[in-house]
């Protein structure tokens, strides 16, 4: 047995979750009854496992150089045992921080952002439809009742956002990063708003336009292909939601993003920012190179910041935070629902992707998404990342609403309307 094999075998014995390996020679390591086996075609993948470079091991799986035999849920138990305690990577050095900031600036030009968004969201509408809910809501659901299924929980999330914003008939509402139109159309149907959505994805734009036409809502619902930095309404909106958008902004662009949110909403209006946040105060990525894996294969240009940094930057832009809610466990359950739905129809998923891209590329994309959905479910479950809804007002000192002095907006400074 080589030194590498001995090292790996000792590591397997120390794991709290059973894992078996099949080496290129056919030799097996680990418990014979382990629920998950990694089959290696080359020894490079074994070295990545031995050194704890889980992101590189994920690369090997995507490229087909390591095959997973077993369920994603069992595999993630192994990953949890392998990731460093607390799930956070080592904090970057000052030089690395400078490089990260420079990359944040370079990665978030208008053209670069458009390319990165389309690389993810324009994979295939039919592929996403396989594992999302019927409304194709691609963000954290809200399981208001324990027995809710995913579809009901997504509707509950859409309604929670509308209630937090206290949407009223006739108000001008904008959805920044409207996705496949779930929130946009829910707000129009059930709250009577005049709704505008923006996206950078051609696939999403085409899908939402089809829904608007089918429902005859063209007089008060519209979708645009538009960068948030280029949105110039004739007058400010009453209410704004940004759901799953802030992760794509980049730390360097956060001040600009927050200033634009403030500009887009009239004084006295309201903003809800819903997004994934870093668990660590220093915005460290998930350990073991898993953050790099997401960057390389799923969300190019994605950056996470801590909720405290988000609130500080939003406040500096002129918005006042009036409520913040952490929905992290809800996102873990959402992601497991997505993962389980995809796992239940893998042959169909590969066939759908093969109609949209070369067959070898389809296999890589499918393997990447299998790891991404289950890995993110684990990350939210373990507390390695979080999800926050931040509700804000654009203060108007001349506005007084309700019985409390100094509301400076329509927000009642009570939560009753959230849960009615």
Automatic annotation (TrEMBL):
| Ranges of compositional bias, category Polar residues | 398-410
GO terms in the biological process aspect are:
lipid biosynthetic process; methylation
The UniProt annotation puts the region (Disordered) at 398-420
The record's keywords, sorted A to Z, are: Lipid metabolism, Methyltransferase, S-adenosyl-L-methionine, Transferase
GO terms for MF: methyltransferase activity
Catalytic residue list:
376
Membrane-spanning residues where? none
Which family does the record claim for this protein? Belongs to the CFA/CMAS family.
List the protein's name: Cyclopropane-fatty-acyl-phospholipid synthase
